[in-house]
Fold each of these.
Amino acid sequence: MNITVFCSAAELDERYTAPAREFAALLGRGGHTMVWGGSDVGLMKVMADGVEQAGGRLSGVSVEFLSHAARHGVDEMIVARDLAERKAEMLARGDAIVVMVGGTGTMDEATEIMELKKHGLHDKPVVLLNADGFYDGLKIQLQRMDKEGFLHRPLAELVYFAEDGASALAYLEENAPGR
Ligand SMILES: CC(C)=CCNc1ncnc2c1ncn2[C@@H]1O[C@H](COP(=O)(O)O)[C@@H](O)[C@H]1O
């Protein structure tokens, strides 16, 4: 399966790198391809190292203004013109989407993926991998949107909150179409 992963470009501590290494190993051992932002920094690098070491494939989607930081020696690397084109490419190339811990870049990607799903413009499974409870606050906010009628589709159809990599992958394997 091609699994698109959005995650932080920052250098993070063990609370976040350990779950990332665990998830990356599961992806690699499962023979999956990780589609990711292509940079060799921060959690993106932790994920790429882990997937590669465990025998998975890497498909990067970099962007012109960050292409100097792109990882070398991967199975595939394309360079999008801008962030909008890159998000569209990353969505198109994945059978399923995983959002890991991240900052504003990851938040931008996560909300666009959910918004497109809300409008029926894709129907790929989306998982928020809630390492160390990082997304507990977002979950509360989204549950309020759901309960008060803001979402137009049940929250459970838009995103699945996984507490660890194993349950994230199990959900994707059950729900990704046409693998
Ligand atoms: C040192 C250097 C030039 C780093 C390169 N930095 C980046 N490289 C690739 N994608 C990025 C970078 N910064 C943000 N992004 C995009 O935004 C997300 C991460 O942003 P953030 O760290 O969560 O807010 C990633 O999923 C990625 O798609």
Amino acid sequence: MSKRKVKDDHMPVGECITQVQEVFRERFCCQKLPEQPEGVESQHKHLLELLKRTAVHGESNSVLIVGPRGAGKTMLLKCVLRDLLEEKEVEKNLLQVHLNGLLQTDDRIALKEITRQLNLENVVGDKVFGSFAETLGFLLEALKKGDRSSSRPVLFVLDEFDLFAHHKNQTLLYNLFDVSQSAQAPIAVVGVTCRLDVLELLEKRVKSRFSHRQIHLLSSLTFPQYAERVRTQLSLPDDFPDDKFAQDWNASVKNLCEDKSVEEVLQRHFNSSKDYRMMHMLLMLCLSRVSVAKPNIKPADVLEASKMCFTDAKANMLHGLSILELCLVIAMKHLNDVYEGEPFNLQMVHNEFKKFLHRKSSSMYNFEQPVIMKAFEHLQQLELIRPVDSSSAKTQREYQLMRLMLDHSQIMEALQKYPQCPTDVKQWAMSAFG
Ligand SMILES: Nc1ncnc2c1ncn2[C@@H]1O[C@H](COP(=O)(O)OP(=O)(O)OP(=O)(O)O)[C@@H](O)[C@H]1O
């Protein structure tokens, strides 16, 4: 929908809500880059200058962007590239190659992708090269201008950089860093990684060719700053089509952030993660509860959204188990308590389960051995239990040693929510020893 400038007129609430959703979808789903990425101004300047040196002056460079997941590494790089490409000459000249360690899992695939992204497939044709270096050299040579005097600058972005270090002989990294150091062609190599110890992964000859420039995105945010960030992220911009609605919305967001219960929720999120990605997830869930009938966010929405963010995926899986499977998990929990986390086998679990059954008169839980075996296998498929040693596959299934992949609190939490859980099963789970 187009952003009509009504300003003094009021739009119908329904239309305002649609606009609100559009604004926040763009902001939270990374469809629109922020004008100036907040909190990383110096890193932005540093990276922009570095890449400019390659794009404009033809210098070669290499740099690593290091920071935890969701810290904004990709966003920083995208903002820098956007600003860099604003210069006409750069836009015309600079070539980009984007590789990802999750996709280009070996150097042969990476080289194919480089050729494809540089549009050199036809130039390479059926030529056979002796080594990786030869191919890369050929590709860079092919990019030289007609008079061979200068080469077009190429930016290599290696996302999930640490994964490239696992490639055989680290050939790709060695060659890229070698070119960047020896000034054969103007290239900039930008590695993006969440591993702080990434340099340790590099072989000596690779490390010595790297410039050792690193840009760190480590957050030193305090809680008041975090709360303020939540407020600004939830606020509507000045150019929102309906002024009155935007003012009311922003005032209600301010009140919301000052609410005691909301502050507690935010504190909990702040303690577990300070990054934008987690914050956006929480805010997105809050916004999904906004409707025409309730055109603002209430503290209860934040509480509900937070609960959804923190639900444990494994504990959730327990809700789908049959009662027999649940009983086996409880038996394993008791075994874990008694033997202090030592592995167990199906026979031991079955015996533990039988102890519980003996105390009961009803035959409701009488199951044949094959049925128990099937339930046990299902738990293994769900990865709620795992064999201690996968090589012991030859051992008879009943005696294969297993470990429970759930902890006490996950089981107890799941039991509380299990639909119509029989009371005796609940009591059995809570009893100290089987
Ligand atoms: N300074 C910022 N301002 C606004 N949004 C941000 C900022 N930093 C990060 N984000 C948002 O946080 C989310 C995660 O950012 P990004 O993908 O850049 O993280 P990353 O460090 O590259 O993560 P990963 O290591 O998983 O690739 C994105 O949706 C992005 O828009």
